[in-house]
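Structure first, sequence second, as always.
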């Protein structure tokens, strides 16, 4: 059972105290309190865990601080969408809104290499009015002898450049919990010129200790990649690990599934699952067309497969695009062959906007159908 308190309920109010006193004394029930800071209000949600089958929903709703109660299913308790659950999704981080209704684009380098390339990338983003990017500093590589990323050494200049170009959020994969502190210490030292979204890579989706460590902090939101060889249910449970530890600011990223049947693409593109993840959970959903498609192959219509895959995800309602660009792909240290080029950025952004607008128009078509059927 989930008790949602009235917005902005003060934690030192009588209503809050009385409500918590009642809930804390329910036999066999333990509580987990979640605070959600939205743009205009603070929401407190109290999860009642354990022996809740016999609890009476009306009785909980009668408590002074409770706005309403929802009976939640066992799966994805915090991030899931339950019956009669029309709670808003998403969060605001460093001035950027993330929800199941909007769209943010994270174009950037798969791996940070030299300052000149980072500079060119961020300048192009600033020129295009974009405020988010991706920059890999810690790279999990299949081959132990491959470049593993510059690690903490590159953080100061990457974050400084981000600040200089008005970048508000940098998606950055971490592969060990010590990287959270490296990032935090660096940002703090620089006076927080930008923000970071911690990325969990597909190889770490079920690294439960890493998930718990990331979930224990709420300074940074999380981008969780779907595991490339496990079921969707298993990946969604991995996201729930983050929330169960206290951090529900999670975006779920589809990035293709590993199978020989996916060829000619690097992975089987799974963007038809965008609406499914939005139905099962309240997480904003990201698509990563670069790691799904993995090449710069072009269809006879003149459009790259990466762009076609992006369009498929966005037209189906994706809320974020994570995509590799590089000013000189032939010099990239990781994933050069799948990178888009700087001069392709404006057209690509225009294509994405077109698809996002089309998704909104598609929604309107089916809303009209629903309204007409109801009459
Ligand atoms: C990446 O985004 O750089 C990456 C390594 O992706 P994935 O974990 O999906 O392979
Ligand atoms: Mn990559």
């Amino acid at each position: 059972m989930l008790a949602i308190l009235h917005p902005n309920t003060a934690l030192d109010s009588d209503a809050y105290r009385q409500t918590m006193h009642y809930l804390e004394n329910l036999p066999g029930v333990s509580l987990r309190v979640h605070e959600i800071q939205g743009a205009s209000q603070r929401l407190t949600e109290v999860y009642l865990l354990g022996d809740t089958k016999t609890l009476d929903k009306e009785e909980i709703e009668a408590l002074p601080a409770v706005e309403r109660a929802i009976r939640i299913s066992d799966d994805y308790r915090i991030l899931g969408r339950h019956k009669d659950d029309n709670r808003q999704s998403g969060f605001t981080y460093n001035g950027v809104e993330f929800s199941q209704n909007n769209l943010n684009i994270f174009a950037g380098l798969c791996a940070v290499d030299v300052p000149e390339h980072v500079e060119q990338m961020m300048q192009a983003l600033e020129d295009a009015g974009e405020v988010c990017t991706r920059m890999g500093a810690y790279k999990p590589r299949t081959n132990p002898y491959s470049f593993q990323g510059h690690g903490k050494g590159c953080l100061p200049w990457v974050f400084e450049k981000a600040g200089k170009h008005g970048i508000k959020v940098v998606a950055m994969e971490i592969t060990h919990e010590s990287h959270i502190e490296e990032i935090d210490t660096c940002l703090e030292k620089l006076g927080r010129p930008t923000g970071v979204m911690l990325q969990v890579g597909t190889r770490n989706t079920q690294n439960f200790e890493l998930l718990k460590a990331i979930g224990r902090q709420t300074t940074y939101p999380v981008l969780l990649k779907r595991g490339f060889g496990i079921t969707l249910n298993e990946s969604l449970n991995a996201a729930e690990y983050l929330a169960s530890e206290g951090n529900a600011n999670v975006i779920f990223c589809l990035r293709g599934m590993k199978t020989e049947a996916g060829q000619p693409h690097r992975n089987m593109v799974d963007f038809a699952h965008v609406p499914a993840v939005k139905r099962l959970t309240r997480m904003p959903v990201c698509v990563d067309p670069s790691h799904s498609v993995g090449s710069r192959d072009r269809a006879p219509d003149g459009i790259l497969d990466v762009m076609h895959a992006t369009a498929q995800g966005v037209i189906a309602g994706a809320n974020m695009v994570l995509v590799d660009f590089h000013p000189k792909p032939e010099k990239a240290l990781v994933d050069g062959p799948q990178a888009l080029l700087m001069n392709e950025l404006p057209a690509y952004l225009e294509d994405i906007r077109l698809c996002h607008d089309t998704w909104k128009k598609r929604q309107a078509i089916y809303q009209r159908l629903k309204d007409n059927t109801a009459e």
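Margin note: The chain has a mean pLDDT of 95.
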